[in-house]
Specification:
By secondary structure, the chain is α/β, with parallel strands linked by helices. Helices cover about 45% and strands about 25% of the residues. The longest helix is centred in the first third of the chain and has 16 residues.
């Protein structure tokens, strides 16, 4: 499966409607983004059960601001609608595969419990 172009209009629904979503925030002028693009595309072909989305930070500036993107490329990974990984920088193929394995292996019951605990500890 090739990656999808995500926009402000499609981002939230894509993240909430799919079990695992990897999102590459990028820009055409960014050298590291251009070097990461083929790695991301190959992974999308190797994992057809995962949604791979790309956000052009130049075309989708409001979305990039909402996602608090300060450096590109930035990879965000969502599992069951929950942000479980976010890291700037171009990953090599082996590191991207390690992230994918880690996300697949997550116990989302534990993740949700930890989030609930953190939310409860945060003063209103």
């Amino acid at each position: 499966m090739a990656s999808l172009t995500l926009t402000r209009d499609s981002f939230e629904q894509t993240v909430t409607d799919n079990p695992i979503v990897l999102v590459d925030f990028w820009a055409g002028w960014c050298g590291p983004c251009r070097s990461f693009a083929p790695v991301f595309e190959r992974a999308s072909e190797q994992h057809p059960d995962i949604v791979f989305g790309k956000v052009d930070t130049e075309a989708e500036q409001a979305l990039a601001v909402a996602a608090r993107i300060t450096s590109i490329p930035t990879l965000m990974v969502f599992r069951d609608g929950v942000l479980v990984f976010s890291q700037p920088g171009a990953l090599p193929a082996a590191a991207l595969e390690q992230v994918i394995r880690g996300v697949r292996d997550l116990d989302m019951t534990e993740v949700r419990a930890a989030l609930a605990e953190r939310t409860a500890a945060t003063p209103a």
